[in-house]
Design a protein that fits this description.
alpha+beta; 1 helix; two-stranded antiparallel ribbon
Length: about 45
């Protein structure tokens, strides 16, 4: 997302059957994101 990189986990959401991606407040602030924004991002999976 933008130029910011961070590590987090994906969490299952039973209600929607999808995964949730938490975005830290510090990342949202650096990227200028507000509630309802839908930014493009790249996910790298580490095993």
């Amino acid at each position: 997302m933008g130029k910011t990189r961070w590590q987090t986990s994906l969490f299952p959401d039973k209600a929607s059957g999808s995964l949730l991606l938490p975005v830290k407040a510090s990342v949202r602030q650096r990227e200028g994101l507000k509630a309802g924004d839908a930014p493009a991002l790249t996910i790298e999976v580490e095993l």
